[in-house]
Design a protein that fits this description.
Length: 297
């Protein structure tokens, strides 16, 4: 399989919200700049990937090797997904860079245990969708945009792509000020096994890839009550029937940096049609296989 070139194409987009769904985001003129040269602009141009996607899973993923400065594995890099809690990375960047005295009491639980109440407060303080517009403009993100106009308070309805989130991590690691980088990465390195809502957040990278890693996970559509009870050690109790979901398709995302020196930026976004326990198993297997494929490049 031919190697992909360095990820360094950043696209400038007007990230205006529009009603109608998770991906209701306008796209305008494309301007190539710095984070994406290795990633094809069209999915059809991607070479066949040696990763088997589990049944019932739709995915977009990318691995960027910061040492070799290139993308090693990718699939559907521009496909838009509902962000769920992955958007908290953008909320954190905007807050840390915009205010003189960042609210660490909100930032820490938002990043470490994915606390939704903290995210909602920071989302409101930052002007809701204006946060995404500012970050997308500054980082020249291709596919990201605010929630639909009819759901301005739903930060989890922000549109993202695997490539855009890889750019977000690359910005944090290589361009953000040391204070911003250390604050965000310091919390992601301490991501706890349980989210503040009781969901087990050690799926995907945490279970499928060896340490060291730092992660920001995302989940939505599995109800407000955890279908499995997080024990606090990365394990989960036996499955029980899930609470009703709020979305047609659940999303489960695992994103982060892996390896010594934060070598690999790994972003795996998915929509799922399975119950929680099966979805977690599938994304963990996918994360493991994507990482192994990246190491083989």
């Amino acid at each position: 399989m031919p190697r992909l070139l360095l990820v360094s194409l950043l696209l400038l987009t007007a990230c205006s919200a529009a009603p109608g769904g998770d991906a209701a985001v306008g796209r305008t003129t494309v301007v190539k700049t710095a984070v994406e040269k290795a990633a094809p602009a069209k999915t059809a141009e991607l070479a066949p990937k040696p990763v088997s996607v589990p049944s019932g899973v739709t995915t977009g993923y990318v691995v960027y090797d910061r040492l070799q400065k290139k993308v090693t594995v990718s699939r559907n890099v521009h496909k838009r997904f509902r962000s769920a809690s992955v958007v908290k990375l953008m909320i954190a960047i905007d807050h840390l860079e915009r205010v003189k005295k960042p609210n660490l009491a909100l930032l820490k639980p938002m990043l470490r245990v994915s606390d939704d109440d903290a995210a909602t407060k920071l989302w409101s303080l930052g002007g809701q969708g204006k946060i995404i517009q500012r970050v997308a403009k500054k980082l020249k993100l291709t596919d990201s945009g605010p929630p639909p106009a009819g759901k301005p308070g739903f930060w989890g309805y922000t549109a993202i792509s695997a490539l855009d989130i890889a750019k977000v991590y690359k910005y944090i690691l290589e361009q953000a000020s040391p204070a911003v980088r250390n604050t965000i990465m310091g919390q992601l390195r301490q991501a706890g096994p349980c989210g503040s809502d009781g969901f087990d957040q050690y799926f995907g990278i945490p279970r499928g890839v060896a340490k060291p890693w730092a992660v920001k996970q995302g989940w939505s559509g599995y109800g407000s009550v955890p279908p499995v009870r997080c024990k606090g050690n990365g394990a989960a109790a036996s499955y029980r029937a899930p609470a009703p979901v709020d979305f047609a398709n659940a999303v489960l995302h695992t994103t982060g940096v892996v390896g010594a020196g934060d070598r690999y930026i790994e972003v795996i976004l998915t929509t799922q049609t399975s119950r929680w326990s099966d979805s977690v198993t599938k994304i963990t297997r996918l994360a493991r296989d994507v990482h192994r494929a990246a190491l083989a490049r």
